[in-house]
Specification:
The protein has 328 residues and is an alpha+beta fold. It has 2 domains: 1-27, no CATH class; 31-327, paralog of FGE (formylglycine-generating enzyme), CATH 3.90.1580.10. It has helices spanning 3-17, 94-104, 152-166, 175-183, 198-204, 247-252, and strands at 25-26, 34-40, 46-54, 57-61, 78-82, 85-88, 170-171, 236-242, 257-258, 269-272, 288-290, 315-316, 320-322, 326-327. The protein has a 5-stranded antiparallel β-sheet with strand order 2-3-6-13-7. A 4-stranded mixed β-sheet has the order 11-10-8-12. A 3-stranded mixed β-sheet has the order 4-5-9. The protein is globular and about 50 Å long.
Length: 328
Amino acid sequence: MSISRIVSYIVTLLICLGFIPPAGVWAENDLPKKYTETITDENGAKLSLDMVLIPGGEFLMGSPADEFGRAEDEGPQYQVKLDPFYLCTTETTIELFMAYYQETNTPKKTHLGDQPEQEESDDVDAITGPTPVYGDLTMGYSEKNPAIGGSWKNAFTFCKWLSQKTGKPYRLPTEAEWEYACRAGAKTAYSFADNPDATILKTAAWYKTNSSHEPHEVGKTKPNAWGLYDMTGNVREWVYDFYSPTAYQEAAKTAPALNPKGPKTGELHVVRGGDYRSEPKDLRCAARAFQQPWWQDGDPQIPKSAWWLPEIDIVGFRVACSVKSQVK
């Protein structure tokens, strides 16, 4: 018997006995705890984003009835179980978003209502990007500030573009994944405490009290226990889910929920995390919000663009990445 066949036999035996996983199946502990993704834009510049592994686990989603600042759409609480995934340590920057915009923008007009199907597809060979932006895409902020002024459709398409550039399954995090990552294992209203102590809050978030009425460069506040910056404050973040005020009531009927993605249909999408103008109650891990009609008031087009929220500097996003291999 050849050496290669002997090795193959031993490997097969070890797989059958459970000592090593079969091809394509890895224990969560074998996954890299973090990695840096680097892409090259069309001008040859190298741009990077840091991804951290969010461990799989279970948590109670939503807020208890007696939590400070609680809204009705945050309950009832229900049990959620999530597989591991990667999440960017910061909100997507203007610098990264500009690379996407320059490579994909198209003069073809796309109006509000021409929404993409909300499904995760591997077909990213042909990406129709945003129409030309109305005004200054940066709104005068630095390239390290969070990307702002884009609709959910723009954030969703950015992820498809990043997937095409890297070959990795980038996407928006689901609402459940976002809250789980924001909590970083905490069961309190904030990832650091139940009481919104101003001294602590000022180190963890840009909000009404300390922001000087504008968003700031990403990664300048204290990260949470899982190394994530600006999960609360600075700008709100688009997530994958459609918004429904009764989403938790429906989900609780079949809890525990495994990797939930929210309602299958809807008109508006959820944003999470509060922004630089927010009160402390809107910075809680369970606080929910969704797109408001006035976010498109600055768009002079009739009908409104499906890509842009002109002059709105309170909404951005961060990217997630699925773990490709099945986790044992």
